[in-house]
Amino acid sequence: MINKTIFQGLLIIALFFGLWFALSKVDFVGLMQIEKNTTSAENKIGDLIWDNIQETEDIITTDSIVKTLDSLIVPICKANKIERDSLKIHIVKNDEVNAFALPNKHLVIYTGLLLDCKKQEAAQGVIGHEIAHIENNHVMKKLSKEVGLTVLLTAASGGKGGEIIKEIFKTLSSSAYDRTLEKEADMESVNYLLKANINPEPMADFMFQLAQQEALPNAFSWISTHPESEERAKYILDYLKGKKYQKKQSISETNWVLFQEKIKNN
């Protein structure tokens, strides 16, 4: 009995020192430095891309339009404990039906998307999808996989950064995430809406609407770069089957129509 106790004690000591030795070999300082550099690069790249967009696109800053869009976004953020001020929301005057997330929590929404959504809830669903990409760090996962960490750090440091930034922008605005990340963002957006008492069905209807086009023109970037759109619409509706939820609108139908009219005339 005594020998067994001594053996167990020695085993515990051996395991402790073995673990200590293994941990001593891990370069925690190096890992923390990589994480710090990556975060810094993410912030820099996002800001550089946005600076480039501002130079080439027409940005809408009309107070009434910005405030109405905010009225659609704030309920989602509030219900899901997302800090609204952490998101950098931008409205760009562009006919493409598109919205996309950039590093450093920039979210770009084209007027083409806002005008093509028949219902405000559809727009909220798409915006929620992009917020989910931001909140779940999908943007940097995509870039690290498709562009590479070394290239990202080079772009952020300014080394041949101009051309790289253009390629990164093209990657984020015109190509889809992998199907796993897309589905995760879809379902996260649906849950965002449910928690905010917003009807997610128009989001699925919007996917069906664009997917049913006989030949998707380039203007339909958001849906044409997200494969299997009809399938995605179906799994959203399947998820909603049997669920009881409120269908509260964030703004009145009249204000939604007025919002779209203001965008057209801006």
Task: Describe what you observe in this structure.
The chain has helices spanning 2-24, 28-56, 63-79, 111-116, 120-135, 138-146, 149-157, 161-174, 179-195, 201-211, 221-224, 229-240, 253-265, and strands at 58-60, 88-93, 99-102, 106-110. It contains 13 helices and 4 strands. A 4-stranded mixed sheet has the order 1-2-4-3, sandwiched between helices. Helix content is 68%, strand content 7%. Strand 3 and strand 4 form a beta hairpin. The chain starts with a helix and ends with a helix. By secondary structure, the chain is α+β, with helices and mostly antiparallel strands.
Count of separate DSSP helical elements: 13
Instruction: Please tell me how large the radius of gyration is.
Output: 23 Å
The computed structural class is alpha+beta
End-to-end CA span: 87 Å
The proportion of strand residues reads 5-15%
Provide mean pLDDT, rounded. 82
Q: What characteristic shape results from the CA principal axes?
A: globular
Portion in helices = 55-70%
Given as residue ranges, the uncertain stretches (5+ residues, pLDDT < 50) are 26-37, 214-220
Query: For the report, how would you describe the main beta sheet?
Result: 4 strands, mixed
Q: How many distinct beta strands?
A: 4
Order of helices and strands: HHEHEEEHHHHHHHHHH
Physical arrangement of strands within the biggest beta sheet: 1-2-4-3
